[in-house]
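[09:14] KT: can someone run the structure on this one? pasting the chain below
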Amino acid sequence: MAHSIPGKHLRRKAAPMLCALLLPVAASCSDEPSKGTSTIPSKTSSPSVSTPPTYTIQQIRSRLLSGEEIGSAKHEIRVAVESIKNNKAPMCSLSGASFKGEPELLKRQFFNQPKRPRDEIFYTQIVALYASPAEAIKAFSTLKKKAESCPSKQRIPARKKPGENFIYNPHDDTWKVVTTSVPGWTSFRGYEKHIEPRTSKYNVFYFMYDYATRGNVVFCSLYWERAEPDDSGDPVAQRANELLTRQLQKFE
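[09:31] RB: done, structure tokens below
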């Protein structure tokens, strides 16, 4: 049974998308994102405070967005994104990157339960809490190096999801790293266009992989939406940016 992104398999039905991977889930006006362009501000932000803040796990929990604050994708579901289930940061082509050290982790996934596949929205988070800001910076730097080492283009063959009766569809991915700007945070984004076989009208997915650090926290999220082949990913990037900003501002 072939599936696409993580999340749809929660219904145990085949879905013409990234269903098996994420159902937990998004480039410019051209089909492929051009390197160095983005709808997001081009300056990387850095904490303005002289002493980095230090958070507790309870403070992190209390600052995470509620379903209602997230918006349409307000329904919390079990985490289905494979990397996050395995306590890793989401990375290019739905792979995962291990967190440096041994941080405490919080992870969540949300879905909007649409009537039409075209309207699917997925949003998932994983937050790593370190003992010190210095450890968090090292972990963040490691993730950035990993993101920058991802191929700008690659074809991923079909594969079976470990331990489950699902098969991920093959997909062609285009990836680039862009800078983002959220006051008080140092951050960047992995911007990916993911194309599956044309078994559905909406066989394109735009994935926004966000990474940010402040104090002793490393925040990672993955936001995605489906699209038609000629659709731009810019609106998806903008919506992901608004959600990212809303979330990170709650830590202030």
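[09:33] KT: thanks! The helical segments are 57-63, 67-70, 82-85, 133-148, 234-249.
[09:34] RB: yep, looked fine to me
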